[in-house]
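Course exercise 7: structure representation. Students receive a sequence record and must write out the corresponding structure in token form. The form below is the worked example handed out in class, using CDP-diacylglycerol--glycerol-3-phosphate 3-phosphatidyltransferase (193 residues). Read each field label carefully; the graders check that inputs and outputs are placed in the correct fields and that the protein name is recorded exactly as given.

STUDENT ID: A-19
EXERCISE PROTEIN: CDP-diacylglycerol--glycerol-3-phosphate 3-phosphatidyltransferase
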Amino acid sequence: MAVPAEARFWNVPNTLTMSRLVLAVVVFALIAYGQYLSALAVFGIASLTDALDGYFARLLDQGTPLGRQLDPLVDKVIVSGAYIYLLSVPQTGVQPWMVTTIVVREMLIQGLRSHLEGQGQAFGAAMAGKLKTLVQCLSISAILLSLAIPTTNNSWILIRDGLTWLAVALTIYSGLGYVVMAMPFMRKKTSTT
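STUDENT ANSWER:
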């Protein structure tokens, strides 16, 4: 008996998601070795796969519960990892408290998502979460670009740092939104046990 395409792990969206995980490791290695322009290029390709996996999941009707958890998890790995690696590089504007805030939020929301999805409750990305991911990617790209092409242009540094601060603010805002969204499901689960 043939397995339906949408039930297979190695469908198009999941393959794109897993390729993003491999690209994340490449980005981390490139940052560690100071190859910032190459890291930016690979990060850009990884960001493109993030847009494409959701598109193909809808187009080919290959969305799966595993894919709904795997896609945001891999997003969190590449974003959190990139900020962690950039934290050790001077002149990035990234502060330890910013990275801690981002990592803690990502772990908390992924834990909530996994718990609720495991209970059969769909817990997909909200618009604020998607916007947060976009701004985080723009922030990381701006930082990598500023490292690849050093400048003393204060306007560019303000844009780079502004994107990073906005990413942190959206991280907190969207995290609170997810917690509020999850509360009714958590209360319902608690009241039935």
